Amino acid sequence: MSFGCTQCGNCCTGPPGYVWVSDDELDALAKLLDLRRDEFVERYAHEVNGRWSLNEVLIDGRYDCVFLEWGEDGKGRCGVYDARPTQCRTWPFWPENLGHPRDWQRASRGCPGINHGRRYTFHEIEIGRDATPAG
Ligand code: SF4
Ligand code: SF4
User: Fold this and answer.
1) What would the pLDDT profile of 35-47 be if each residue is shown by its tens digit?
2) Best of 111, 115, 116, 132 to mutate for ligand 1, by most ligand atoms within 8 A of CB?
3) For ligand 2, which residues put their CB under 6 angstroms from it?
4) 25 CB contacts (<8 Å, ≥6 apart)?
5) Which of 19, 133, 97, 108 shows the shortest CA–CA distance to 65?
6) Tell me: the pLDDT tens digits for 65-94?
7) Domain range summary for the chain, segments of one domain joined by +
8) How far, in Å, CA of 89 to CA of 127, rounded?
9) pLDDT band (50, 70, 90) for residue 107
10) From the CA of 103, how far away is ligand 1's center (Å)?
């Protein structure tokens, strides 16, 4: 399987969704932004059924992750890339994309990086799959 992000931004926007963040990831994000955890949560996250998810911003009918930044070149960039949550690091090697080739092809319709870029080893894909938090 191959993948190379084109920075189209699709996976960080679209319909409302969840960007799950663990407690450790909250701490890492807060540290990156030089905030206390409670300050970070107040500004950038909300609780959903006992879990944390990053806030979204409604722009032109799309729900952008609060940390998605659009460049003048039209590319989407993560404003917290070095501390982005596991869910973001492991895309597109999520369990729901790996069960069957048609699942991978379905995911590729929204992500132009799928089937392009470098080839990933089975072991790399397994690591991503097993680290992905449940949706
Ligand atoms: S949808 Fe795919 S190609 Fe586009 S930004 Fe996300 S990972 Fe990169
Ligand atoms: S944290 Fe970064 S990579 Fe993850 S959804 Fe938000 S902008 Fe995208």
Assistant:
1) 999 999 999 999 9
2) 111
3) 12, 19, 54, 65, 67-68, 78, 80, 84-85, 88
4) 83, 85, 86
5) 19
6) 999 999 999 999 999 999 999 999 999 999
7) 2-131
8) 11
9) very high
10) 16
Residue of minimum CA distance from atom 6 in ligand 1: 11
CA-to-CA separations, 19 to 68, 117, 134, in angstroms, rounded: 12, 24, 11
Q: How far apart are CA 58 and CA 66, in angstroms?
A: 9
- Number of residues that this document lists for the chain: 135
Residue 24 phi/psi, 5° resolution?
A: -65, -40
Whole-model pTM? Answer: 0.93
Contacts of 38 (CB under 8 A, 6+ apart): none
Nearest atom (ligand 1) to Cα of 113? 3
Query: What is the rounded (10 degree) CA torsion for 103, 111, 44, 47?
Result: -10
**Minimum-distance ligand 1 atom for the alpha carbon of 112:** 3
Distance (Å, whole) CA 75 – CA 73: 5
